[in-house]
Design brief:
The protein is mainly α and 229 residues long. Helices cover 78% and strands 0% of the residues. The longest helix is centred in the N-terminal third of the chain and has 34 residues, at 20-53. It is globular.
Length: 229
Amino acid sequence: MTELWDAFVEALRLIVSLDDEVVSIAWRSLRVSAASTALAALFCIPLGGLISFRSFHGKRLLINIIQTFYSVPTVCVGLFVFLMLSRAGPLGGLGLLFTPTAMVLGQALLITPIMLGLTISALSGVDKTIRDTTLSLGASERQAIWAIIKEARFAVGAAIVLGFGRAISEVGVAWMVGGNIKGFTRLLTTAIALDAQKGELVLALALGVILIAIALIVSLGVNLVQQRH
């Protein structure tokens, strides 16, 4: 028990002293997850607005399929992206495998169902009179969708924050398509898993504390957005 406590104290010292390796891994994780969240948001928000705005046959089934992918295993997404980016895959010629770009693409694909489904739910809760009023004033479909998105901006913001939380806490995709290369593709989650296996508890604990702190900030951010909504 004493050894664990000493390791925890040493881990806190690494964080407070801004250890180069700890800062590098944490900053890389934030960059990759932020980029994947932004990429997913650029796709999910307009598409979610379009799905929410239009009525078409099979809409309920489509939404159910999207929601089903909320809990898709990260290793399955990682395997799919790995096959796409491998030398034998259709995108193998781009040379993206085992790079930060591959992790961004993988994480974006992982969080897309969550952000898309939550965006649709958020926009579906907007009073339909807003859409009807906007259209009656001569707005185009795109302008009407944008008006609905602005009305539900806090709920959409919560969907984006939750997507970021999912991205930064996953390990399967990052490990499979990033390779966990030191100084290049090693993230908080993959570094924690590797260091724990190697018995380097001090560094694993330091990174774990940072990851928990980020998760807490994400949770507080979601609650703040929902309270404003």
